[in-house]
Amino acid sequence: MVENILVAVDGSDHGRKAVEFAADLAESYGAKVTLLHVMSSPGSSRVPEELEYLGKLEHIRITEQDLLRSAAKEILHEAENHIGRRAVKELGATIETGDPATEILKFASANGVDLIMMGSRGLGNLKGLLMGSVSHKVSNLATCTCITVK
Hints:
The protein is an alpha/beta fold. The chain has helices spanning 13-29, 49-58, 64-84, 100-110, 126-131, 134-141, and strands spanning 4-8, 32-39, 90-97, 115-119, 145-149. It has a single domain (4-149), classed as Rossmann fold (3-Layer(aba) Sandwich). It contains six helices and five strands. Strands 3-2-1-4-5 form a five-stranded parallel β-sheet, with helices on both faces. The radius of gyration is 17 Å and the shape is elongated. The two termini are 23 Å apart.
């Protein structure tokens, strides 16, 4: 039985489909859903050159770290809004930083997840394709059931 679903979200089309599928399963099984976004890098505390002028005009300081965290929150917010319209028992969301596959596996293990759901292809770069995708790594190393969605 499915009781605790982890959905790795990255803002990709496949990731959005994984959120929809997880919501369907959670409704059917009365399962808890946790949305997880993993930032590969926390970003630096420097202000991007493109925003220096804006910062001087508006008297604000926006760092690379602020931009990355804001994008991560927006990705989670979109997924939460989609699932929030459904009859899901319990919904949580979190952001981690590090290698996406490692962080997904670590979170699943630490939180008693019995199903990991993610898109089959994310927003990764060519390097990710050459070294193996996150979904491939997670599917091979997870101790629980994994579903990759196209």
